[in-house]
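Re: your question from the hallway

Yes, I did run it. Sequences:
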Amino acid sequence: MNPVHAAVDLPDPDLIQVQTLDEITVKFAGDSGDGIQLAGQKFALLASAAGETVRTMPDYPAEIRSPVGTLGGVSGFQVRTGSAGIHTPGDRIDLLVALNPAALRTNLPELKANGIVILDESAFTATNLAKAGYPGNPLEDGSLRDYRVFPVQIGKLTRGALKGLALSTKQTTRSRNFFALGLICWLFPRPRAAVDEWIEQRFAATPELAKANHRAFDAGWNYGETAEYFVSPLHVATNQRMREAGVYRLVTGNAALAKGLVQSARRAGLSLFLGGYPITPATEVMQELSRYRDPDVHMFQAEDEIAAIGSAIGAAFAGALGATSTSGPGLSLMGEFLNLAVIAELPLVVIDVQRAGPSTGIPTKSEQADLLQALHGRHGESPLPVLAAATPADCFATVVEASRIALRYMTPVVVLSDLSLASGAEVWREPALDELPEFTLHRSVAAADFKPYRRDPETLARPWAVPGDPGMEHVIGGLEKAGESGAVCYEAENHAAMVQLRHDKVAGIARDYPATAVHGGTDACLLLLGWGSTFGAIREATDRLRQRGRSVACLHLRHLNPLPHDLGEALRRHRAVLVIENNSGQLWQQLRAEYLLDLQRLNKVQGTAFRIAEIVEATESLLETLP
Amino acid sequence: MSQTTVIPAATAELPTPPDRAHFLSGTAPRWCPGCGCFGVLKSLTATYARLGVPRERLVTISGIGCTSRLPYYTGTYGFHTLHGRAPSVALGVKLVNPELSVWVISGDGDALAIGTNHTLHLLRRNPDIKMLLLNNQIYGLTKGQASPTSPLGLVTRSTPYGVADAPINPVNLALAAGASFVARVADTNGAMMEEVFAAAHAHRGVAFVEVLLNCVTFHDGAYAMITDKDTRDEYALAMCPGQPLLYGKQQRKVLVADNGRILALPLAEGEAVPDQALRHDPQAGDAGLAQQLALMGPPDLPCALGIFRQVQAPVYGLDPKPD
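Structure:
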């Protein structure tokens, strides 16, 4: 086999000793017990520490424990790293590390033509090949001829390196991930010392395993250096922008949501209460919160989603920041209680980490198809604000904004995330508490002239007197309220006025928004418009198209209700607008109804995110048809 | 930072001694004349006045149904929530502010049909929340349909040929759920209601009280045998901790166990209570006898009233979590 430098568009690989690549997408894949996630995450963190921009995406097997070596049991971790301008975990893989035949077979369709495969040759046994459904051995039958394949006896070499340690066969096999990590860390040079230190910390309780991982890592590294497969290490370009000082961490969308709730409550000087019920892919939010020992962070695991939101509403009534996290089916169950929060006008943050529906659908696949449910999925006239997060780290900022709105306007707020944000990760610096926006509360209440539904003239919010506040005892509930007093009232004109008031209160939230910002200029011929997790692919597609000289710009919406006041104007500046969504056109339909504009749409409902290339291609086609 | 100043009203101090009116909202109740709810409101607010808890620290939370209108008539903080869901709202309130005295007001349709799940979980978790289940064996607000506690054969608007499914016994359900305090009272006995409500408040943990409630409009007389002056001696038994289970005119009937079955034994004139008489023990090691007592009722046996069970157990949200 020929020596190689990289799979990505290299001019003349054999002649250059040290290459710098703009970016690289690496995927670690193996059996779910192979420690793939750990190796991938560590590689991503090392890349980030080197100054590169990093986005990651795991893919877990759908079943909890499929038989070892089968296609169903393959676990993967994709890392895209490079200079600035990286906003997605990557369209396709440049370099695949496959620890067994099933991992190879599962991920090969995602590998670029001429891409690199480093595989554990010792795992390509007849049994494993059969489990993966290979009729023959792909290493021998020429079926991999379009790729650059580097078979390495990872299993055998790891066993050799670990000889003499008191380890079971299983533990020895599991150390292959460190061999692979060592090899990749030689190929894309990472500081060995940092890895050594991390192994010491991580495996402090099990010194024998620490020793094993050191040895396996070194064996992988040394293999890279010694074997003549690779001429020299490859360097990935770093993000040249100066980073602010601080602690950076690889954060998933779900972890960022949990963190955002905690920090919002702290910033507001309130307790946080999250009522939750396990549901894929939202469960990590409640799990993250359950780890806090802070008496002001409550996580209550309820008996169902109804009780989850009910308890959060009770907590809000009692003066806490109430929250719940769920996915589409759970949001359906919460509809009735959401309406109670609407009419009782209590601050509440409801997080929907969307997955493919309807019904149980495909719980392990991503989709953006709950937008209409969030906007309209309740009985009666029931307006509430809806926000969407754009990236894993943006989940933090979005939930902070949702909490700000909930408290300032005394309203439930729905935050939309999705599976790809939930499990995708990026490197992020957590802002200090005083970097968060100020929160306005309506707790400054004088008992002398207290009326439970007397409005703040600017926000139309009602006062938030809570049990324990003397002299302001009152009863709220789901029955229609009379103007200021909040007494039960069935009168026709009062009902019409209250419906209007609740509408006006939510519509007024748009006053607080910053001006709508278009990336790429307001004079572009075509505007690509999106919301939620499509941000990265749309943004990179726009940049690529602009590099080709196309007149394209993009705009991403965080606030889906109420829409920004200046949005209609922004849309009208462009000759055409393409609304891009992982659903069948839900925002597209909303915007057409709202602005009476003939917008175009690009939709994908396959349970996976858009590739950048798909958007580029669709946009090019659309541009050709424009006058 | 945020502003969380609350300026108390000048008139917020407790009147001494606080009377019941202080715990009423002043809104006139709109239940049917003669409804058992009036008695419950009276006893509950009289209990509130006895507790020594300032009005602003009391929270009355209900679901949906005739009985669930009760919070509007109290002078405490209140929340009229969703059908069957009051326990979950109450739990959120209590968990973020354990200083509050939280009372759930519910009915048989509310707590035992749509909200059974929440009722069960509230009871087994054992938070320091008090739950009154006002059981009139009928849906009143929707005008007379069968409820999960309607007796077999009852003709209602939704069962013109009679109820065909067996009813739930609320006390038995609460005991099975592991509730640490379980009681039953009748809406006609204000003194017993006040006594039991006060004991429920004093109990550290969840307290479940079934109130036998008469619906004058849709199921009048459901508990007549237990509550009427002429028959109650024969069909109601007030349980006293540590005492033999006696009832009847001049307390001349006693409950005994025969091979695990409860029997009523009449006592002859001047006959002492026999050693084999069952004695009431709300703190018994298990709830077995309490469950048997809960299931008793006319015509063969009396309906047991009072506190069935009162035991100490770790309190959810107050006691430290086990490590």
